[in-house]
Design goal:
- The protein contains 14 helices and 13 strands.
- The protein has 443 residues and is an alpha/beta fold.
- The strands form 3 sheets. Strands 1-11-10-9-12-13 form a 6-stranded mixed sheet, sandwiched between helices.
Length: 443
């Protein structure tokens, strides 16, 4: 019992992010932003979006396409012009049919076939006549060359469609629409989901200056008041998951070395839902190797055997015997018959890993705020989407508490709030922001 207590106490020290460490991370993040924005070497990519913040007065019916994986969504969004929006029509469809009738993600499919399929789905939700601005969320690695120009660098997420890499995906979609006689649907903007989250928040709250995804993956963007390219306000996609200015523990190093791309996405591997369960498994495994808890079965050595939803379940377990923790440990790793102290140790590890995630993320946001408003004199809203923020017990509270720890009384000027469906509504707002003139359909 004493040895387990000592081991957990050691872990608490290893995974702690002190106030001094928070300040250091914020400072290094700010420096990385400055270097990246100037085009110098930086772990932050600082990608231009070529789009600024909306006015909140954009209005009309807008088409949004959300293409972030093997399922695609097509939306008809109604913008009310007073910071309010609603999804009038929502269609989701797979690019690969379960029955094998089609597969637009395979090497046997071509780019024109893929985009014609998407254009066909768009045709189902537009009426005859009128102009429909279109916003396009495309969440794959791209070189953004303009607000409506994004060249696919390479496919990810199991998509292998030929003839798309190194091509302008916006142009390919517009060509497919025109081939179907849908000239009235006009592509205005190509964005990623993080930019969409900021836009969705800013549409109803002009104080929104940061957008972030805290879910399976992690990324943040922000509104740069005077971008070097345009000398005007522009949202910058930082690809902050690649930030390398955070000290790794031995568990982070083990996870990173076993990943597909060691050395890349270091922050994301420490904070995102994709990796939190694996960090917990590595730590619990070390306790088992050292004889502090029963190792159960060989399943404890299976990578990624603890999904994010189990992290939330463990954090939410308030039962005296920690019955949920016991059930998860048995189901995932074959660990059974521990004393309550053993299950408490597992729950503590989960809490340490999850709360470290929130504190590290907050430190990066503090770096952004220190850059764009050094004295923190203005009000700032951080728009966040993702399951960690929305559903993980204690996560949102830890973000807010860490802001207070960093900024003290000035943290009152910072609001962190949920911004749902940025990849859909945000794309529509992007299109309406770019589209000039009256945003109502011309009938």
């Amino acid at each position: 019992m004493e040895r387990l207590y000592t081991a957990v106490a050691r872990l608490e020290k290893e995974l702690a992010v002190s106030a001094i460490l928070l300040q250091g991370i914020a400072s290094r993040f700010q420096e990385a932003m400055t270097e990246g924005l100037a085009g110098r070497s930086s772990s932050l990519k600082m990608l231009p979006s070529f789009i600024g913040s909306p006015t909140g007065q954009e209005q009309g019916q807008v088409i949004a396409v959300d293409f972030g994986g093997t399922n695609v969504r097509v939306l008809l969004v109604e913008l009310a012009g007073t910071g309010r929006s609603r999804i009038a029509v929502r269609r989701a469809f797979p690019l690969k049919d379960k029955l094998g009738h089609y597969d637009y993600t395979a090497v046997s499919a071509s780019g024109p076939e893929l985009f014609d399929f998407i254009a066909g789905k768009i045709s189902e939700i537009v009426s005859d006549g009128g102009i429909y601005p279109l916003g396009y969320t495309f969440s794959f690695p791209c070189r953004q060359q303009g607000v409506d120009k994004a060249v696919l660098i390479n496919w990810t997420k199991e998509i292998k469609t030929v003839g798309v890499e190194s091509r302008d995906v916006g142009q390919m979609l517009q060509a497919a629409l025109e081939n179907r006689g849908l000239e009235r649907v006009r592509l205005q903007a190509v964005i990623n989901d993080t930019t969409g989250t900021l836009l969705t928040g800013a549409y109803s709250d002009p104080a929104t200056t940061i957008g972030a995804i805290c879910g399976t993956g992690h990324n943040s963007c922000y509104l740069e008041s005077c971008h070097p390219l345009t000398k005007r306000p522009m949202i910058v996609n930082m690809e902050s998951g690649n930030f390398d200015g955070v000290q790794q523990t031995k568990y982070d190093i083990l996870l990173d070395q076993a990943s597909e791309k060691p050395g890349a996405q270091r922050l994301e591997k420490m904070v995102s839902g994709q990796y939190l369960g694996e960090l917990v498994r590595l730590i619990v495994g070390s306790l088992a190797v050292d004889g502090h808890i029963s190792s159960g079965s060989e399943r404890l050595s299976v990578p990624y055997s603890l999904p994010t939803e189990d992290i939330s379940a463990i954090l939410g377990d308030t039962s005296p015997e920690l019955e949920v923790v016991a059930a998860v440990a048995a189901a995932r790793w074959g660990i059974t018959q521990l004393k309550v102290s053993g299950y408490k140790a597992i729950q503590t590890i989960v809490r340490l890993v999850a709360m470290r995630s929130a504190r590290l993320v907050t430190a990066t946001w503090a770096g952004v705020l220190s850059k764009i408003d050094p004295g923190l004199v203005r009000q700032h809203t951080i728009a966040v989407d993702g399951a960690l923020y929305e559903k993980m017990p204690g996560y949102a509270e830890q973000l807010a508490n860490t802001m207070v720890e960093i900024f003290g009384d000035k943290a009152k000027k910072i609001t962190i709030r949920l911004s749902k469906d940025g990849s859909g509504i945000g794309a529509a707002i992007a299109a309406a922001t770019v589209y000039k003139g009256k945003y109502c359909n011309e009938r």
